[in-house]
Design a protein that fits this description.
By secondary structure, this protein is of the alpha+beta class. The protein is built from nine helices and 15 strands. The strands form two sheets. Strands 1, 2, 3, 4, 5, 6, 9 and 15 form an eight-stranded mixed sheet that branches. It has a seven-stranded mixed sheet with strand order 8-10-11-12-13-7-14.
């Protein structure tokens, strides 16, 4: 096998062919527009990566997505591993291991503060082998809020009768509405609005959030426009909360069918620190109303156990799905790249959402 650095633009066609072989040509991430958006030039700079070649054919790949990360008052350049894949006919533990080893060295040579990635339940065993130096940070918790008329996901059907499960789902939906109503007993000032473009008001919101105790990927207007306006494969419901011309928060959601159930995924949620819980609750209710109007049965979110985001979701009617029922678990992994002091001290403080990933 030969290994070499991926060059955005010049190597796009070869990597897109590999994507189609691994994921299927119908997958929206096999579009040239998606790869150009992802690695061609982000607010944090152009991407890179490592390709594994067999007789000039790309049979393995790990992309490097540059990120700007804020950990309290410090701003860091971080490398995120994306699109880690190996063609079926070329699968070998040695090749998969070698790709990640070279990727880690590349991220270190490029001067990134640390590396991060989101391998699934099978590939994380390769990534976290002791010789590579990657370790688990946290397993995101899946939380759901059943909406009115919620259906039961098919994978739960064997756990009881359909009628009993529907009844239980209905009860949970009513309890969720009651809890959400209680959280909104003090509605924040202002009103919701649909976001067409993230303007300078969102930079002001970001500065207020960053002035508090924030750890996570930078969420200024440039990032939000790149991530949720220019993303070429998915559409997003973008809702802001405004008062007297000032933006106090936003919520991002996207409709998907998950395990046969029409759902709305909560992709991101952020609110000004001095009114975070009330603004977040109001934004979530706006998402709920629109999700129900579109015929969705579930509102789903990912979060970190013990985080402020988990507390907000729980107060607004979300319940945590037991890990054994989570159909697609994955883990956040990190590599200190030789500078362990750059890593957060407590991952429960990390502001994580589905939007941190590139394919949702």
């Amino acid at each position: 096998m030969e290994y070499r650095t991926f060059v955005p633009g010049a190597d796009d066609a070869a990597v897109l062919k590999l994507r189609a072989n691994v994921w299927g040509a119908e997958n929206p991430q096999t579009m040239p527009e998606f790869l150009h958006w992802l690695l061609g030039g982000t607010p944090a700079g152009a991407g890179s990566g490592v390709m594994m070649l067999d007789s000039q054919e790309v049979v393995g790949f790990a992309g490097l997505l540059p990120r700007r990360v804020e950990i309290e008052s410090e701003s860091l350049a971080v490398a995120q591993c994306v699109d880690y894949m190996v063609q079926t006919k070329a699968r070998s533990r040695a090749g998969s291991f070698r790709i990640m080893s070279i990727w880690t060295r590349l991220a270190r040579d490029l001067g990134f503060a640390f590396g991060m990635g989101f391998p699934n339940a099978s590939s994380h065993k390769i990534v976290t082998r002791s010789k590579l130096g990657w370790r688990e940070a946290f397993w995101p918790a899946l939380m759901v809020r059943p909406l009115s008329g919620a259906a039961v996901p098919g994978f739960l059907a064997h756990w009881g009768s359909a009628s009993l499960l529907r009844y239980g789902t209905g009860v949970v939906a009513k309890l969720a509405n009651a809890r959400a109503g209680w959280s909104l007993r003090r509605k924040p000032r202002g009103e919701a609005f649909l976001i067409d473009h993230f303007d300078s008001r969102f930079d002001h919101l970001w500065q207020r959030v960053r002035a508090g105790s924030f750890s996570g990927i930078r969420r200024d207007a440039a990032y939000l426009n790149w991530r949720f306006v220019r993303q070429p494969t998915y559409s997003y419901l973008r809702i802001g909360w405004e008062s007297s011309g000032e933006v106090l928060g936003y919520a991002i959601a996207s409709p998907r069918e998950v395990l046969g159930v029409p759902s709305m995924l909560l992709v991101d949620l952020l609110a000004a620190p001095d009114a975070a819980s009330h603004v977040a609750a109001a934004l979530l209710e706006e998402v709920v109303h629109r999700a129900e109007a579109q015929g969705n049965h579930l509102l789903q979110a990912l979060t970190v156990n013990g985080s402020p985001m988990e507390a907000v979701l729980r107060r607004t009617g979300f319940v945590t799905v037991p890990p054994r029922f989570n159909p697609k678990p994955f883990v956040m992994t990190v590599h200190d790249l030789g500078a362990s002091s750059n890593l957060p001290a407590f991952w429960a403080d990390w502001h994580f959402s589905w939007g941190d990933m590139d394919v949702v």
